[in-house]
Amino acid sequence: MSGQEHHTPISVSGGAGGTEAVTEDLRAAAQILDRASAALESSGGYLVDAAAQLDHQRPLAGEMVDGWVQRTQQLVWTARFGNGLRRPLAGALRECGSDLRATATHYEEAEEQAQRGISWLSATGRYVQDALGVSTWTSRVGLGLLWRWTPPGMLMHRSGNDPLGAALMPNRGPAVTGMVNRGTTTGVLGTVDEIPVGSGMSLYQGIVHSLAAAGGALENLFGEPTIVGVERVEPQVQPHPPLDFSGLFGNLNQACNSDDSILSIDTVTQADGSVAYIVNIPGTSDNGFTDADPRDWPNNLAGASGSDQDEAAHLTDYSLAVLAAMEDAGIPPDAPVMLTGHSQGANVAYALASHPDARSKYNVTHVAVAGSPSGDTPRHPDVEYLVLSDVSDFIPGIDGDSGKHGVNETHVSVDSRGSSDPEHAAEATGLTSVHAMDQYATSSEALDASDSASLTHYKHTASPFMGGVAVERMGYDVVVDADSNADQ
Asked: Does residue 262 sit in the same domain as residue 323?
């Protein structure tokens, strides 16, 4: 893997080299050939009619025009039967169009496999393996607990020397991502998302809306402070200029692990003095109902339900905080902007990339996200998207979306569970560990080793953000209402 010690399998779909970029041209060519074939067939009918008219008119023609009519008959006859080319040519055109459609279908099948990431056989094998593993793990835990309640087990456990108990009790939880993963979650929730409940809303959206409203009500009940703005904070660590995909996602990972800010904005300066901005948007961090951190579950659910793709008033608190930080950073309206995000941060990045308020103020040209459940959020045609997801991560599947991806949206499926790095592979067996940004940052190294045309195109268009000579990070935290009596 070109200088890398370990290998993580990846498959790329969508983008400049994806199905939509190829099959659209193939199907368009097939339609042109069909029209040409139909035109040839129609011309044959017109020639038959012309020959019949000439046969009828020749006996009526005078001596002066008979020669002209006869020559015209010969020309029509040559056009109808000369060299016998018309019918074979029309048939060849139809066959060629059919072949082009078959080629497009093969591309679509290959794209579907690339989007899935692993074969059905591998997925089934992992499912069975994990199901048996969970059963074994449960049995070991049961036996370990029974042993500890026996008199010798209690004595040995209290003494700190219990080799039998240590052997019985597992060191870590069971592998479960073979059973609960992106594919299984997409399948289940995709079905729920197809059930209408009225007002243009699906059952899935109705459930998510209800949960988001319930979360907001609990925040009000527990007195969560009101966010009134953002403030700049000095980051503990300054990032390096991103040179490649691993540098890009590595800097996002650094922002996700920051304790002093909820998001950060990197100013990247190129050798020619040009400047571009990368807005790093971390994922969910607040799991309670009293903290002012907007990276919480009500905002997460509101974004997942699609509510932050409509009017400005419907933007989540997190989306508004990002917009406020971009304004404070003084990003010029013509400077290239890339939005990078993990998990909930990916939802925010998608929403802002297409939102009229953001697009009227900033030149958002690129989005790069990891662990993204953003299938229902609209894509803007003038933005290049890069989506990194792990086949073992169930979070990207909670949007229930498994649709096709356009020429401006490159999807990369990584299989970290199949990595040759034992530690990286082990982290992919847990529901939370496989979704961690640390895990995705490690997986992103595989993108730089890929020769995918879609990744090459994305990296080329993202040159204003990569390979710079300097980068400066600005961290941002929220400012809350001073009159709030809740814990801050």
From this structure: yes
